[in-house]
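Lab meeting tomorrow. Please check the following:
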Amino acid sequence: MKHVHPPMAAGRFYPAHRCALATTVDGLLAAAGPPSAGRRPVALIAPHGGYPYSGPIAASAYAQLTPWSAAIRRVVILGPSHFVDFDGATLPAATALRTPLGDVPVGPLDGTYRHDQPHAREHSIEVQLPFLQRVLAPVWTCSPVALGHLGPHRVADLLEGLPASDALVVCSTDLSHYQPHETAQKLDRHTACAIVDRDPDGVGPRDACGRVELRGLLVWARRHDLLIDLLDLRTSGDTSADRSSVVGYGAFAAYTS
């Protein structure tokens, strides 16, 4: 029996109506421009704020996929749990994830267990789905992994077996939180350098709300000698008028060397 996880962020983080959402995402992708590299990314790092704030930065990541839309059949999204404290890595019990653009089948991932509560109110994974739905060909599955207390090497272990020719990893994280714009820029530049250098120890406790999955991705990238490019680095002060207290956003892509 099909069990669908309903959208929680529709109407808050992104438009709730199908046509408006498709138009918004397509516009963001068009504004991001063509891919910056002639290689297919095996992993992306993208923010998970509301689309008016983080959408242009997220689009910088997802625009890298457009030439390979038919090649990707499996997506693993790693997201933080903002509301529930738990250990390990969880998938929802649902068989599909729903957005206003349709349903995405949920696929298994070794090393995870089923636990609905961390996913019930969580937006960090959901806000990535409309971008993937507009970029990828219709037939793909998603392993939506909410991460609790887990060390970076354990997170990296979840991704073993990847990179595969038809798989993509998405790490959903924002960067610094509620700093003045100039302070956030300085903090986020430091974090961006750590990401490009694949240095998990360079990502401090307050540098990213998705620190658990980000550090794990960097361990995995180092294991497989992936190259990481910075695509975009801005704050909510760049996409809104308020620069007094901002959230940092970064977009990155990882490639096989």
